């Protein structure tokens, strides 16, 4: 009887040891496997970093020096973000280079760079960043800077130095998004005379 109990206890111990060992092995395998999975995902992210695609503006055709840019002459393409610096024109800013002359020739597919355009000759005016109803007080967020051909800019256009004089003023005529900000949209007083408007 004692030998039988001892034998059963021995078998139970061996069985318990085997089950415990198997469970321990399984837990270790899960921990190592999970850690390995996390490590592999991190390595994938490291390798992919900088290769996420972002949209940029490119030449849609070969452009000769001094060509006036139109919406038809530019296109959009996605390139790895590591190649996109602040000097590259992004699609949401494409309207700033349209109707400007490119200073250097570009081939179809070339990135459009701000340095390829003579922005100094553009008059710094403002357009409405959104629809602005009558009676609304103009805020900084309502005004979007826009380079314009100085020959087209009249004294009624609000220019960069005049910005503080219109912020906070109520609008007497509604603006639609993209409309130039004009002094005539405020009260009937003439715009202030500045060096820029006197030219």
From TrEMBL:
Record keywords: Membrane, Transmembrane, Transmembrane helix
Cross-referenced InterPro entries: AFP_Neu5c_C_sf, SAF
SUPFAM superfamilies: AFP III-like domain
Superkingdom of origin organism: Bacteria
SMART domains: SAF
Ribonucleoprotein is among the record's keywords: no
Coiled-coil residues: none
Occurrences of domain SAF (ranges): 54-118, 123-187
Ranges that cross the membrane: 12-40
Entry protein name: SAF domain-containing protein
Source organism per UniProt: Pyxidicoccus parkwayensis
């Amino acid at each position: 009887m004692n030998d039988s109990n001892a034998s059963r206890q021995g078998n139970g111990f061996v069985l318990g040891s085997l089950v415990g060992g198997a469970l321990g092995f399984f837990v270790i395998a899960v921990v190592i496997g999970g850690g390995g999975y996390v490590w592999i995902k991190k390595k994938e992210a490291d390798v992919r970093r900088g290769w996420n695609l972002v949209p940029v503006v490119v030449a849609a055709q070969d452009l000769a020096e001094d060509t006036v840019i139109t919406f038809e002459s530019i296109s959009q393409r996605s390139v790895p973000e590591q190649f996109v610096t602040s000097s590259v024109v992004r699609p949401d800013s494409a309207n700033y280079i349209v109707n400007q002359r490119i200073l250097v020739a570009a081939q179809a597919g070339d990135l459009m760079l701000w340095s390829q355009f003579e922005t100094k000759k553009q008059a710094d005016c403002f357009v409405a960043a959104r629809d602005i109803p009558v009676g609304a007080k103009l805020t900084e967020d309502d005004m979007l800077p826009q380079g314009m051909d100085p020959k087209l800019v009249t004294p009624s256009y609000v220019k960069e130095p005049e910005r503080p004089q219109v912020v906070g003023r109520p609008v007497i005529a509604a603006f639609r998004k993209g409309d130039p900000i004009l002094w005539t949209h405020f009260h009937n007083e003439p715009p202030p005379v500045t060096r820029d408007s006197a030219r």
